[in-house]
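Q: Convert this sequence to structure tokens.
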Amino acid sequence: MGKLMGDMGARVIKIEPVSGSQERNIGPFKNDIPNPNSSLYFWARNTSKESIAIDLNSTEGIKVIKQLLENADVFLEDYEPGFLGSIGLGYEGLSKANSSLIMTSLTGFGQDGPYKSYKSNDLVALAMGGIMHSCGYDDVPESPPIRPSGGHGDFISAHYGLIGTLTALFYRDFTGHGQYLDVSAHEACSSTTEASIPTYLFLKKEVFRQTGRHQGATPTPKTLCKTSDGKYIIVFQLFNNLNSWMSLVKWMAGKGMAEDLEDEKFKDMARHITSNPDDSDHAFEVVRSFILNHTADEIYRGAQELKYPWGIVRSPEENLKDPHFLEDRGMFEDILHPEFGEGVSYKYAGRPYRFKGTPWNAFRAPLIGEHSVSILKDDLNYSDEAIRNLEVTGIISSLKIEN
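A:
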């Protein structure tokens, strides 16, 4: 959530232990050399933040955080339920000093209920939220459920948390009052299982996994077709529209590959999907053979010209080479890393939205405690001597860039 808000222009301060956040130890690392300040995982998830590294097990450390929160708009946290309250940083106490404060807690199972203290992570959220149960293969008997690649559980819950937090900010604009938000990663994932829950509630049916397409209570047409250059095409809504289906048959016939699909019985494939699955299976195999004899780009360009919602199954790296994303849309941005030398920058995935009045101005993730001193001095008016005392006693750590 903090990264999303920071990339949109908010000032975000990351509060981390004096030795650095645990996520700094997650690889891969720059040059494959483990270092808490060069975790690529941490870089990607913590752009546009400042860092104060401070000991929350100390009275002085808690005092500093309370002072910061007296003037803060939002406090984001993901500690185990009850921990912050036990050290004097619960919302009830903080809101007395700052009634407009919004505090958002993002945990695995929420702040109450029998699961509130259960351990969780991205995989657990995807598994227990029902997403993994919906992902897998229907053409591989007894195949296990599969998690989506990437930290989808984390991203889903963070985006839901952000939506709630921004809504609370709107509410505060009208009322002047802040509030507390309790966000559950499990519930966030569970809310994105599409038709699964309503299908069970209203039809008493369970959906099943389907290869390369949405889960369903009834089979839907296959979508994955291999191309002559070894790639795959998503062939979506193949039989949903008669005009589209007939234009596809015409395209294949022009290449001499329509076989018998010009016969009258294949004209209304939307009806035949359920009434005659043998016909639809045969039609799909003819389409699959047609696609197998062309490159992915040939099929993709041809399909788009005919207004089909088809696409190439790409690796994430392939998008880096596409001028549409790289140059025309500027999806991938260079961000400076002065700790490695003047003018040194690395490419990052940008934001998938464009504010016409406020251009994206993200900056790299912070070093451990990189801003501890400036925050204490500029925001809280601590003296140099007071800051030195905090450093000497191990209450804060401060790492500076060496030029």
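The mean pLDDT is 93.
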